[in-house]
Amino acid sequence: MVANNAYQLDPDPIDPCVLTEQLTHRSRDIWIGNDNMILNTRKCDGKFWDLVNEHPIHPRVLDVIKLSRIYGVYRSYRPVIDRSLITALVERWRPETHTFHFRTGEATITLQDVEILYGLIVKGNPVVGYEPQRSVVNWQNICQRLLGFTPHPQDFKHSSIKVSALNAHLRLQPRLPDWATQDMVNEKARCYMFWMIAGLMLADTSGGLLKLMYLPMLEDITAVGSYSWGSATLAYLYRFLCKASQSTQNEIAGFLPPLQIVAQRDTRNIFPVGLPRGPHAARWFAHFSWTDTIKHVLRVFTDALDSMIEDQFIWEPYSSDIIESLPEYCRFGRDIWRARVPIFCWDVVEVHLPDRVMRQFGLVQAIPFPFPFPFDATHFHHDRRRRPNTNWELEHAQWLHFWNHIDQYVCNAPILHGSLRYDDPYLIWFRRITCFIIGNPISSPQQQGYVPNATAYETMARHIHLMVNKAISLGDNPSMEEFYGFRAMVRDE
């Protein structure tokens, strides 16, 4: 694969019939008016934020966390997750391309987003390793050596530890004594880092358990920051988006805050109140308010995405000025943000496809071509269960080659000036292989603004007649200027 060839035209890499069928799979429940299909968002971060709000982390401990390159997650504070918005986005998620299909084209969460918003390093070693089968006694010894306490046997379950055990330990001595040694500081830092990694960034659907496989990766404090936590977090989020896109699923996990922030930042018709274009997720925590938005109404979000137009989507959210104003840890991996490679998190392997969303980088979008990674429609069913003593580095060897030579797979394209024309080859192709409408227009919410009265119908009729007369006046061969003027008129009406 050569990056410079990533923009050759390809006829139909995806079967349009299959795509439309799968795209509307989850949304069938919305069409029949089933409001119970709002996804449950699973996480175990509530007690973490309660703890650090009551007992701020000691500066010496924070210095260690900063070296780990996951400090931005702590700095972003507790996120507010709207389940209806997350569900509306999941309805438009395509597992085979890892993109959301909107009316205006494809968009997704990229390596750029996780590094800019949360400072999660993307350039580094993949988060994979050997996972031997360990006894409870072994895990107790590891916890004592790395975390500074020995959990009770009942605190363990299936190679995981209960959040309540870690929370109780940290609350026993929330403040670091002045005489604390560096080893004590490191133990305290590992407790917080382990909770952030297993409970926030890589949270699963268990709700109250933290996977212990990540803990040995924190043994060498100086090496924690060498791992690509950003790509691992993104791979894990991709996996849960793929799972949740199935109509049989009723919950989603993974690191959901960047997904919601990107939606709030980029879709103007859902959140009309301007949000600050800051480079860090903490800006949304500081200023975001639900005052002028409708909460927990899935159909409202679905209808808003169904009716979205080009001008209502911010394609390039990070200008060069914003990127340059960021601290170094938020732009360390900028040279690989557009890398078209597999990304890893132990058993999870997903594909990062920035060539499908080049407009998010301010570049021209062309018709993408398929990635050589074979797509398995049931890939999200494969996990670590019944796979003891697996060396995931060997398991993923053929795909790790791409990551280990990531500089060779960075996609490039010309700079985009303005927006895409309606007759752009990419948009023509995209309209053939996707489905624009997810919700059921017959069952729109019976709220003010949705059900027109008689006067509104008369006004609508006059506008329709006006557009018809305008179309007739254009004749059979209108100029491009007249055509786009008419298109703008129809869009506004």
Automatic annotation (TrEMBL):
Residues 70-431 form the Aminotransferase-like plant mobile domain. It comes from the Eukaryota. It holds the Pfam family PMD. This is Aminotransferase-like plant mobile domain-containing protein. It comes from Solanum tuberosum (Potato).
